[in-house]
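In this supplementary section we document a worked example of the pipeline. Step one takes a protein sequence of length 153 as its only input; no multiple sequence alignment statistics are reported here. Step two produces a three-dimensional model, which step three serialises into structure tokens for compact storage. The input and output of this example are shown verbatim.
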Amino acid sequence: MTNGERLRPADGRFEGRTHYFPLRVYFEDTDVAGIVYYANYLRFIERARSDLLRALGIDQRRALEDGIGVYAVAEVNIRYRASAKLGDDLLVVTRLEEIRAASVLIHQQVRRDREIVADAMVTAAFLSPEGRPRRQPKPWVERFERLQEEGKA
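The serialised model returned by step three reads:
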């Protein structure tokens, strides 16, 4: 690297209410046939959700360390519609569908160009450090609401 330049991991970005997170399929993501192993789509959408929260200014690590709580997937329904392959460039498209007191409903798609490869609905529950459902922090809910209403992160 020259001139103190620093490489950063891929960041997602918002366009209106929608969050876009790019990723590439690597050898470790695939089976022997070079096709993405089905469980890895869950990893892809988890990364995108984590990036969405980061982009909204929600620091999950600090919330956990401060004893506030953490999000955990309570339910996921996923439909696999096509196979992603080694070397594919994918895009995870994420939208908040519903904000509840102690959870959020999130729609996520993994796309290759315009083709939908996987389509998922995820319920992320907010849990206390002891693992019990807890109301989400009010500032976080306000950020989610602002995103839904105005399309601004």
